[in-house]
Design goal:
two-stranded antiparallel sheet, 15 helices, 7 strands, globular
Length: 279
Amino acid sequence: MTAPTFLHLGPGKAGSTWVHETLLTHPEVYLTPAKDLYFFSRYYDRGRQWYVDQFADAPAHCGVVGEVCPDYLATPEAPRRIVETLGDGVRLAVTLRDPVDRSFSSYLYLKKHGLASPTFAQTAQRHPELVDEGRYGSQLRRYAELFDRSLIHIGLFDDLEENPQGLFDDLTDFLGVSRLTLTPDQLGAKLPASKARFLPLAVAAQRTAGLVRRFDGADLVGRVKRSALVQKALYRPLGDDRPELADADRDRLREELMPEMVIVRDEFGVDVVSRWGWS
């Protein structure tokens, strides 16, 4: 029976899809075909056996077995649940993005599915997770209380944009597998912000995906989401009509989240304050 040895914890809108799709191509790594099992956040009541069964197809030669799920970093119960299910020796990774940019990207995601209020500020009030998922310092502290610091790898979304090969090399080094030269497609792969071509259809697709997941259809959802044809049919990239975050909202979020970034810098050794120009 194969149990995961690696989890990518998120957060959302910070490159987790790229990490998943790229690791899937590594011959020494097995990931579940479906990203976002949500076991340690939404479906813990399905039990350990259900979870382990998701990895039943892992080849014996794979040195790393795991999954990518962006919910886990921000879910308060997840660290304890991971220890209860997998022990405290599993390797954990995150890819952090400027939380202001990340929250606005989440807003655009809600907007394209018809779930946003007219403005970002109103949406953040209605969906506090837009901001709360960027409280990286407190979230990492919860994991550091239960896992050795050497088992927690912190990458930055900035490097996905500026040096994806370096970002991936750091991750594979952390996992203890060989480095893999990325293809031109992988080096250039980005999922741009988009809007629905026909909003009712996009809303129906999202609701259907949620229903399928609840009935243990994560693998099917993953295959459909990876379909370029489906993405092209439902969405188009934002162009000149792309919304912009108001300066007042940006300044307010930075002030609110600065203590969290200081924790990441001072306790975890990653100077996001300087890297993101917050100093």
